[in-house]
Amino acid sequence: MHQPLPPQPLITVPPHPQWPSLTAAEKADLKADILALLRANNAVLVAHYYTDDDLQELAETSGGCVADSLEMARFGAATNATTLVVCGVRFMGETAKILNPEKRVLMPNLQATCSLDEGCPADTFSAFCDAHPDHTVVVYANTSAEVKARADWVVTSSIALPIVEHLKAQNQKILWAPDKHLGHYIAQVTGADMLLWNGACIVHEEFKAVALARVRKLHPDAAVLVHPEAPTDIVDQAQVVGSTTQLIKAVVELPNQTFIVATDAGIFWKMRQLAPHKTLIPAPTAGEGATCESCAHCPWMGMNALQNLAEVLRNGDQEIVIDSAIRERAVMPIQRMLDFARMRGIGGR
Ligand code: 13P
Ligand code: SF4
Q1: pLDDT one-digit tens code per residue, 54-68
Q2: Predicted model pTM
Q3: Domains of the chain (ranges plus CATH)?
Q4: Residue 49 C-alpha to ligand 1 middle, in angstroms?
């Protein structure tokens, strides 16, 4: 917060992938093919809540997992499968490989990245850390293996708050990367001394504060649920700020009948499944200043579909490979997070 930050690289946001629509019969055939391929490969699906409904459903019914990034990281070690097929974005596949180097980790499309990861190149980040040697380096899971290799701690949105509280109790100064909005929120709640990298999620940055206030007026009994990657003027309007899992839990547990949800639209599949009688309203991305590059759906998450999932199970060509020296360093801050989660009984699903 006090020193000038390195200039940010320009991020190229891909257009939303347009997948050819499938008839019900074609979809059923493709799902049956995928199930057979999973068995033949001794593989399981590990999917994020922002992926396509069909992928979430298939992951769940085939004995895999649908979860947030913390639980996705844990799941790989808990399964006997020798191949993990990670439906999500690249950092999720890389984390699975770092934690399970003996397993094959495939993704439907290795180009599925994340604006936070793209906005934090390892060389500039490393120079930034060198310039602040008195800071503990805490990086969000949404980063490359190389950036994690430079960190003291990795955190996800499910566990960032208690970890930063823990570091603050030890009077540690924190260098935080890459999400400035999540970093700002955590610094505000914990009061920790945090030097923030200047990254952002292009999906959560689309939510519009004035338009959200208008929707709240129309639904005065609704609870507003916000992922902390959203900017402060959105977070400030929330009843609940939390990870994907924490927002899903809020829909199930809060007494409200209506919810305004400020995160990627993929989350509605699980929310509807667990709370079918509640009314879910997407927080607005249109309004003054709208650019709608994402319209509350991550274009990189959208690169996962039944079609390329079947393809990668047939040809295995989208495999995560990580340099062993990088892996050996990157596993330490991730393991530190998992050990902390286990000791504190913090769940990710
Ligand atoms: P969660 O860990 O809350 O699922 O968040 C991951 C993510 O990329 C949100 O944009
Ligand atoms: Fe990254 Fe945002 Fe997409 Fe999550 S939603 S993967 S933070 S770009």
Answers
A1: 999 999 999 999 999
A2: 0.96
A3: 24-111+302-324 (3.40.50.10800), 204-297 (3.40.50.10800)
A4: 8
